[in-house]
Amino acid sequence: MYKKALTALCLLVAAMGANAFVAPAAPTMRAATVMSMSAAPKVGAIATASAALLTSAPVLATEGTSEAFGIDSPLGFWLPLTVIVFINLIFFQWARTQPEGEFFGEYDERRK
Question: Residue 84: in which H helix or E strand, if any?
Fold first, then answer.
């Protein structure tokens, strides 16, 4: 039962994907068009630019705080930054005390 269903599915996918191996049609020559000074190209450019800007607009939502990213006090910015810097300082102090060399690549000459 499952073998027949899998075989039918494979054949269906192969038939649908066969178009990927067809050579593209020869390019056709188009007649040159005269560019007119209309507003149509400007509208297309504005629509394209506004789509990009509107998709990123929720990131800058102020949520009534009048501050970007919804941070309503300086503490919301400085506290996480201070914690990150403090942890990095502790880590780098610890890293200085560690021996140099490769951890996995060293060869212990005592063991033969």
Answer: helix 75-96
Contact 69, 59 (CB under 8 A): yes
Which pair of tokens denotes residue 79?
Answer: 């506290």
Alpha-carbon distances, residue 64 vs 72, 79, 112 (angstroms):
9, 22, 71
Q: What is the mean pLDDT of the chain?
A: 74
Six token digits for residue 68:
């970007």
| Residue spans per domain, the chain | 73-98
User: Do residues 22 and 15 lie in contact, with contact meaning Cβ atoms separated by under 8 Å?
Assistant: no
Give residue 101's region: left, alpha or beta (phi > 0; psi -120 to 50).
left
pTM of structure: 0.34
- Phi, then psi, of 104 in degrees rounded to 5: -95, -15
Say if residue 35's pLDDT is above 60.
no
